[in-house]
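input
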Amino acid sequence: MKKTRCGGARLVVVLLGAVGTVALFSGCEEDDNGPPPDANGYALAIGLNKVDPAHYGGWDGELSGCEPDAMDMQQIATNEGLDAERLLTAEATRDAVLKKLGDLAEKLTPGDLLVVSYSGHGGQMPDQNGDEADGRDETWCLYDGEVLDDELYGAWMKFQAGVRILVFSDSCHSGTVLKMIRTDWESPPAGRIRELDDRWKTLRVPAKLDRAKFLAMPEMRKAIKERAYLRDRIRSLPPSTPRPGEAATPTPPEAEAERIFVSRAMPPGISATTYQQNKTFYDELGEAAPREDSAQVKASVILISGCEDAQASADIGFNGLFTWMLKRVWNNGAFTGDHRKFREDIRQAVEAENSEQSPYFFEIGEDDEHREEFIQQQPYAVE
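output
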């Protein structure tokens, strides 16, 4: 792969669809550490504020900040010159997401960039093909059903060598937090699910998050004004700034605040019910899905997730905490640095607001050299 590096001179690239016009001025030289100058960029932003109760045992998984996440992530990608699409809530079905990834795998060629973002609940279920040491497959909770991490591995396997894929996942998994085991899904003993749900209730609301602070933020005020569903969930709010001489502003009732500030993970009882009611479907998916094997993925893939496996990602009403801090670190494109620095700056910003949430960095792909080359590039850099 080659890119053009200029010292004291400038490289001007004008992209019109898939056609590139390059103006090269003196002082430029070829460098083998980047993608070709005619690379194209694509993005898919997925955000679900609800899921279909018909599949999830009557649970709709109500969240507030996931659709705004997807809209913001699409906007970032568009601003950086990527061809960006989004799927919101009922549009984000299993078939729609997997088909879109399949179509992109056919379209992208070596050097191209794909940015995929997911905001919604995460789930887990029993591993069926023996590739998970803990016996659990992680999932994205799409509108009409969960998609297994093995299925996503299968999607990445379809991309050509030399394609670069950056994945952001603002979700989490209650099963890891609670150390669920296989029998919790398949045949839980009496009282076990109640015990897990009771424990989950203590973790559902991020304890370290200053909810009153977030409720008073301009971003929240703007979101409440623009989004009826958010207004409906908050009945009383503190003023943006207290008037001189006024007493400290009271926080809204706990029941109202806890409808907004929640962890993005499927409750364990719902996870078990969803699996049991769709057992044949998920067992067959798990058995047929490819085993997770980085050597089988020819593309270079970076995953930056909202938290570590045993933690929870917070929804803060107008965004997810991870996505909101990603936006702040990106700073309308002013960020400079590689993917590791991007994750590290986001991690520090997230932990400053919620010390129990640490964004995680993971990479896969068979070609170590090209993967490391991708990691050292600026995020969203098409050329």
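quick obs: Confidence is low (pLDDT under 50) at residues 1-31, 236-243, 246-251.
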